[in-house]
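Page 47, continued from p. 46.
Same chain as before, 233 aa.
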Amino acid sequence: MKKFWNWVRDETTEERTLYLNGVISEETWWGDEVTPKMFKDELLAGSGSVTVWINSPGGDVFAAAQIYNMLMDYTGHVTVKIDGLAASAASVIAMAGGDVYMSPVSMLMIHNPSTIAIGDSEEMLRAKALLDEVKESIINAYELKSGLSRAKLSHLMDAETWMNANKAIELGFADKLLFTEDEERIPQDTGQMLMFSRAAVYNSLLGKIPKKQKPKTSTPIESLEKRLFLISH
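Result:
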């Protein structure tokens, strides 16, 4: 099974490193109930401090929420290091770090969740209500980390705000620049740097839809709507 995470254990110190690279994929999370359990089992397979390296344009908002919750609930110290990009849903995962470090050349981006809805005016209102609630849940994570007001965070999301490392630290989304006090180096196994755009992520995710079996209890349109909502942020 393809995974968008990879665990590495230091045999000397026993400290573990988690690499989150690429799109937080619907290939792994959609219709696969064992995958969240697999991730949790791997997280809880050891103890002590965990370092999470992030280079991701985002993806499935609920998959990101599960990873965020698992890291927040983990008994050891969690350090997040953004070496490339933490955008959209990946920025939510980054907020789980007790300490969040950013490379001087990395970026963090936050924006509103989005989806595709088909139907009458009532269906559009229901879709808006769902997106509003998802936005509020995302703000919860940003508020806990940054200490910014919910109104300020909402405005930043409305504007699709891109932050370099210094800006992210200024606003409270990150704590410190990497490579400023030690000789720590970016690991080589971080994957290719990804430039984020809504179109790029949507096209990547939509391209997977025909490969998946539609739930028998849903019409094709209902299945499409649910899937897009899950992966939209």
